[in-house]
Amino acid sequence: MSEVTIYHNPQCGTSRNTLALIRNSGEEPVVIEYLNTPPDRATLVSLIGAMSIAVRDLLRIKGTPYEELGLGEPSLTDEQLIDAMMAHPVLINRPIVVTPLGTRLCRPSEVVLDILPNEQQGPFIKEDGQVIVDDQGRRV
Prior knowledge:
With 140 residues, the chain is α+β, with helices and mostly antiparallel strands.
């Protein structure tokens, strides 16, 4: 079983690029399509802690019910924000990648390079044409 897990949304370009970078390192990760199989509360809290980010930093605004739910209200507690993510997994920003070297919200996708156990095995160009890894396997 792989030591790399990605909480993935195949409709998201950043998530697709991150998955491709993982595979370009020779890893075949455990892929969790979190909109179909959302993490349970304990897992979500654990991921947030492992990333050392504020709960609010994991909230996705674009294309979500963020505004309708009033989640921009600063008085909301972390528990209330987590409740909202549990009720509406689309609010969880992505992709989240877990490796033996750490856990990160990989936005932009090349953040994953900092936590992959293996080097890139070849060049990598993002879907938008941006070169991330050159022909010598070096990060650009």
